[in-house]
Amino acid sequence: MRFRRLPPAVLACSTLWCMAACQAQVPSAADTVAVSGLMNYGSGKSVWTDKLQALSRGKNEKLRILQIGDSHTAGDYFTHALRQNLQQRFGNGGIGWVYPQRVNGQRQAQIEYSGEGWDILSSRNRTDDFPLGGIIARSKGGSAGLNPRQAQTDTADITFVIRPVLASAPLRVSDAYGQTVAEWSAHAVGSWQYHSVQAALPIRYHAQADDVWDVGHINIENKQPGVIVSAMGINGAQLSHWQRWRSDWAQDLAATRADLVILAYGTNEAFDKQLDLAATAQTLRERITQIRRALPKADVLIVGAPESLQNKGSQGCSSRPAMLDAVQQLQQDIARTQQTWYWSWQDAMGGRCSMKSWMSQGLAARDAVHFSADGYRRAGGALAEALAAQVGKH
Asked: What's the CATH number of domain 98-223, 3.40.50.300, 2.60.120.1360, 1.10.287.70, 3.40.50.1260?
């Protein structure tokens, strides 16, 4: 598939899917449950709602939520608000999956990065054998560190996704005390591998000079019950960019053990006047099918594209992106026909034409596409409220 180059202002944004015509039968109104703007289009009994219920009763459970998306996810403000709100109510299960090193122009709310001798490769601008999430840290010799922004007192369960490319010595992991806690040899060169270790944070991983190692995403969980919200976002990403990942990315998804997969794309497609609605519809349907095969007990939640403007100086909302209405409608249509969950970010903002109001309140950025930290916190908090409201209703 060819990818058209979008305007720079849009590439810094989110990603969207649109669908022209949905052939599947739409569930009746009786099959649809709406709570605080959260729509359940007939997904049936949900493991994630059961786990929220169990956590509310003090049970020893882990609820794992994975959000994959564009810049609205890559900044980790929206997802951190979702994370904090749910963890305050139901317990903190850990940091979750994070990228191995800092990605330029992006943020990870729970981790600070350090180190030298590692390059970041992104599926935003290249095709490679990317694991889930589309980011690789590639060594040129040297070490890199992951430092939690909040002090961690207990030993964590940590999983690395790694690949030896050209290595003669093991990849070494050291803990908060500088002690080596794992050494993984360079067997099965060229293949992605999963390795786990228990260690006190912060941690560092070390590659010998002249060795080439790839490190994908890293999972950090504590030993307490509670909620984990992992954010995998890339600036300028589109759902179709998953085709740039390795063919076995579904194995990576299965390894997350996610109970709820949130797909938060849309804005980039909305700015594309030549968007192929039928093709993006098919892509979204295929992704939902692949997610369900990899995680048969998990639910999918589609987040509708938020309100945005193509020209912030226009009167009212006369300069909304050309395809925004179509994209939002088609996202909801796919949620209906594929019987997933759906949440309208635009409705949470106050509906159509709400962007200028958010800008005047300091909740949206000057580009009329992104949001301020407070705006993302408000939106993420609204989704958290909608999810928490499911306790006792299923």
From this structure: 2.60.120.1360
* Closest to 93 in 3D by CA, of 257, 225, 218, 202: 225
Report the C-alpha dihedral over residues 227, 132, 170, 179, rounded to 10 degrees. Answer: -20
- 343-359 tens-digit pLDDT: 999 999 999 999 999 99
Task: Provide CB contacts within 8 A for 380, sequence distance 6+.
Answer: 77, 78, 79, 80, 81, 82, 85
**Could you give the CA distance from residue 181 to residue 173 in angstroms, rounded to a whole number?**
6
pTM score: 0.90
Instruction: Give just the sign of the alpha carbon dihedral 229, 234, 238, 242.
Output: negative
Beta strands 156-166 and 212-221: pairing type? antiparallel
Distance CA 27, CA 114 (A): 50
How confident is the model over 204-245, as pLDDT tens digits? 999 999 999 999 999 999 999 999 999 999 999 999 999 999
Residue 166 and residue 208 in contact, taking contact as beta carbons nearer than 8 Å = no
Has residue 393 got a pLDDT over 90?
no
As a whole number of angstroms, the distance between CA 91 and CA 75 comes to 23
**Which of 239, 183, 240, 236 lies closest to 213 in space, CA to CA?**
183
Query: How many Å is the Cα radius of gyration of the chain?
Result: 21
Distances (CA, A) of 192 to 210, 212, 234, 247: 20, 13, 21, 12
**What is the distance in angstroms between the CA of the first residue and the CA of the last residue of the chain?**
41
Tokens of 286: 């295929």
- Contact criterion met (CB below 8 Å) for 261 and 298: yes
Q: Which CATH number fits domain 10-19+32-93+224-394: 2.60.40.10, 3.40.50.1110, 3.30.1330.60, 3.30.428.10?
A: 3.40.50.1110
